[in-house]
Each structure stands twice: as structure tokens, then as C-alpha cells.
Amino acid sequence: MSKQTTHQVLMIRPTNFGFNEEAFLSNSFQNKPKEEEVGSLQSLALREFDGFVDQLKSMGLDVIIFEDVPNSQSPDSIFPNNWISTHENGLLFTYPMTVSNRRKERRQDIIDFLIGKGSYRWIDLSLSEEHQPPQYLEGTGSMIFDHRTKKIYAALSPRTDEMLLHLFAKQLGYSVVSFTAYGKADEKIYHTNVMLCIGETFAVLGAETIDEEHRAMVAEALNRDGKEIIYLSNDQVYNHFAGNMLQLRNGKNERVLVMSDSAFNALTEEQLGLIRNHNEHILHVSIPTIERIGGGSARCMIAEVFN
């Protein structure tokens, strides 16, 4: 049976974190900073990033850190899970990105490092950016994997192309559960990982974001595969990043569910109790600047390394 969780993760320490105007066009989770706070965004994000890393390490997780390039023109480089993923079967994928200034985040030195470390076979899907019309698929932002049942769950959107999704799934040998979900501005939700997390034995699901045509189908697929579903409200998804979680395993083989303070504080005692039934630890971290300005949360900052 394939592993759902890993103990090793890749993270990118930012050198020029900030508000990404181009990304804002399709990410309603971002918020424009006030003029007087623009100059402090990088230092605040760096403090939050370093604190996050320290907490992951204290929990017994192995963190590989790459510094973003000097004078980076990629304000979202702190979210590497959108451009790269590794897999237990020895494949490494790089992905086509919707936002043109995010394409600079794909780095050959990181790819080479991981290939040298894990002997991966690299499959580059980024040429789909040049298709007419272009096709986009933004890694584990666009797709949530259930590795044990070899399924991909994906909310279709401008950042998640259905045709490319099925092509990717065929290469990986997985089946697809696709649907449409909507954000707070009634737009197609930009990334699946803000409304769905799948662990070994549970799923956290913002079911109310999914259109009525697909809502029951998604829940039935998760239940059929033995997942206990922990349901989120739209407020928890839209305003607190409560769907943006990731389950890992530490060096003691304990399950660790990672989320932000915002997500943790928005959860009810009942929801937390259900989560604790499936995890030895809940790790929640303070990343308010990264969430508010970057429009991504704890899961978005982590690229899993399976080897």
C-alpha cells in the first residue's frame, strides 16, 4: 500500500515576499496590504517562516530548506507545492503555472538536488503553458492525493485544467474525482487545497463550497474509501484557511496534522476532537502575514518529499 504521509518536506525561505498583483486576479484569498505596511512584509514573512520551520523540527520532522534567489521577482516563492511534487513510485513532476511571474519559481538546482537525493525520474508538464489555449495544473494546490486508493481529488478552475489533470493522472496511474467548487466571490475556487485535506483515515472537507451536482459524489467517494469526513463551514474555509492542512509523520512514526493558528482557532471542539482521533499531534503555526497577503496557508508552504 502506498504511503499517504512522509516525514520529510521541502520549504523555500523567501527573499522578497509581497503582494502578487497578477495572482490576485484568480485568488480571492489574498488581501492587498496597506501602503504603510508594504516595507515590512518581507521581514514579517521571514519571521513567520522561520518560526514555522522551528516548530516542524521540534515535532521531529525533517525540513529541507532552500533560500529563494537574491533579488527574487517571485513574491509567492514561499509556496513551492504549486510547481513541484515527488512521489513514492520515483516520479518527480514540475507543473505549468497560471501566473507568469510565478514560473520563475521553478528552479533547476532544486530539481537536481532532489533527483540526486531520491533518483527520481523527472516529468516536466510546464510546456503546457505554451499550448493554445494554455493549460495549467498547479501541483498539490490543484490536486489532493489519496495515495492509498490512487485517487486525485481536484476542483476545476482556471488553475486546474481538466484535460491536463486526466493526462497527469494517467501518467501516475491514478483515477480522478473532479468537481466544481466556489470561493467567497462566487468564483471557481483557485486551489483545491483550501477546501480539502486528505489524511490516512480521514478527510477535512469544505463541502458547502462544492456545487450541489457534485457535493454528494465527493463525500461518497471519500466515505467509500474509509475516510471519516470532518465537515467545515464556508466561513472556516474562506476566512480562516481551515481546509489548508497537511498530515505528516515524524521520526517516531507519529501522525502530525499541520495547520495555521487561524485554522486551529476557527475549529470547534467537536471538530478538533474528531481530528485528534486520527492524529497524535496537531501542529498549528502563526503565519498571519503570509496568509493575508499571500493568499495561502500552512499546507501551501510545504512540498512533500517521498523517497
What does this structure look like?
The longest helix is centred in the N-terminal third of the chain and has 18 residues, at 41-58. This protein has ten helices and 15 strands. The chain has one domain: L-arginine/glycine Amidinotransferase, Chain A. The protein has helices spanning 21-24, 41-58, 108-118, 139-142, 162-172, 212-224, 234-240, 261-266, 269-276, 288-294; strands at 8-13, 62-67, 84-86, 91-94, 121-124, 143-146, 151-155, 175-179, 196-198, 202-205, 228-231, 246-249, 255-260, 281-285, 303-304. The chain has 307 residues and is of the alpha/beta class. Helices cover 29% and strands 21% of the residues.
List the helices and strands and how they pair.
Elements: E1 8-13, H1 21-24, H2 41-58, E2 62-67, E3 84-86, E4 91-94, H3 108-118, E5 121-124, H4 139-142, E6 143-146, E7 151-155, H5 162-172, E8 175-179, E9 196-198, E10 202-205, H6 212-224, E11 228-231, H7 234-240, E12 246-249, E13 255-260, H8 261-266, H9 269-276, E14 281-285, H10 288-294, E15 303-304
Parallel strand pairs: 1-2, 4-5, 7-8, 10-11, 13-14
Antiparallel strand pairs: 1-15, 3-4, 6-7, 9-10, 12-13
Helix pairs in contact: 2-10
Question: What is the radius of gyration?
Answer: 18 Å
Q: Describe the largest sheet.
A: 3 strands, mixed
Strand order of the largest sheet: 2-1-15
**Average pLDDT for all residues:** 96
Fraction of residues in β-strands = 15-25%
Order of helices and strands: EHHEEEHEHEEHEEEHEHEEHHEHE
What is the β-strand count? 15
Determine the number of helices (DSSP H or I, runs of at least 4 residues).
10
Structural class, from secondary structure content? Answer: alpha/beta
The top-level CATH class is Alpha Beta
Query: What share of the residues lie within helices?
Result: 25-40%
Give the overall silhouette. globular
Q: What is the CATH third-level topology name?
A: L-arginine/glycine Amidinotransferase, Chain A
Tell me the number of structural domains: 1
* Weakly predicted, low-confidence segments: none
